[in-house]
Amino acid sequence: MLSIVKNLVEGDRRSLARAISIIDNNEQDSRQIIKEIFQKTGKARTVGFTGPGGAGKSSLVGRLIPECQALGHKVAVLAVDPTSPITGGAILGDRIRMLGSLDNEKAFMRSMASRGAVGGVSKSLRNAIRVLDAAGYDLILVESVGAGQLEIEITKVVDLTVVLFTPNTGDNVQAIKAGLTEVGDIYVVNKADIEGAGPLYNILVDMIGSTERKPPVLKTSAKTGKGVKELAQRIDKLLEERSINYKVHERKMLEDELKDMVSDIISQKVASMLKENKKYSVFVDKLAKKEMDPYMAAEKVAASLFK
User: Fold this and answer.
1) How high is the pLDDT of residue 119?
2) Which tens digits make up the pLDDT trace of 274-302?
3) N or C: at which end does the chain have fewer Cβ atoms within 10 angstroms?
């Protein structure tokens, strides 16, 4: 592991890709990699792209890469894809849509499987970001899988959230109702070159304008490139403004991560204890016979486990 870490820190892309694979697959060496690089992290800034499926996230991110590089950033992309039911890995649709940007040798792009995580945010995503951070990428663009109302989960692992909408899709109304208008730092009407972009933009401006934060609402077209440079500049400006309070923000994200990890460990231990607990099946029988309600049964099982 020392050689992989040493090589990826020195810029070896093959070692970088291998390290992310180890983490994404939760292999035995993943903990050792994080242990060795953790003190080298904390420099990169992350931007999440979320929104309903079909909003053009992949195409827009691909267009953004050269614009962000022009602003002086070393850019990497993590695209969280749906999980393949056959291999358990990522279905590489995003890689296809970003082919033009992948020819750029200075950028690094990787697809990761959502692995059933809420909102498409896999458990290994945070650590993949750390590997890229240690490898010297100072701007990491994270594209969340198109999961409709569950898309707000990406905000837990990034510094800045860009929410995309696109005209003439029924998902927009549902997504707006679901709270996506509450989590974004920048809102974008993508595919602004097609009919319906104007009315959608006006709706978003009205809704966002009524909030205290009043984040910017922009129009872009990944097809023509219109508005992409302005979006890159807005992202850069917001990240710069927030750099003053970054340590506070980082501490909050680490607190959330630690809470999630402790909860996972406890859940695994509880599942193991229930499997070995003979009384558990007794309470299941009582529920099936309607001799006890679920609340009482859960309380009694918990009491027997943690007495």
Assistant:
1) 43
2) 888 888 889 999 999 999 999 999 999 88
3) C
- How far apart CA 126 and CA 25 sit, in angstroms, is 14
The more confidently predicted of residues 118 and 20 is 20
Rounded to whole angstroms, how far apart are CA atoms 68 and 228? 10
111-123 b/e (C-beta count within 10 Å ≥ 16 → b): bbbbbebebbbbe
**Among the listed residues 231, 56, 266, 256, the one whose alpha carbon sits nearest the alpha carbon of residue 153:** 256
Does the structure show a pLDDT above 80 at 13?
yes
Measured CA to CA, the distance from residue 82 to residue 119 in angstroms comes to: 11
Answer yes or no: are the C-beta atoms of 51 and 37 closer than 8 Å. no
Question: What H or E segment, with its residue span, contains residue 24?
Answer: helix 13-24
Q: pTM score, two decimals?
A: 0.84
Give, in order, the Cα–Cα distances in Å from 134 to each of 4, 5, 40. Answer: 12, 9, 6
Q: In what order do the strands lie in the sheet with 160-165?
A: 108-113, 75-81, 139-143, 45-50, 160-165, 186-189, 217-219
Tokens 């059933």 sit at which residue?
116
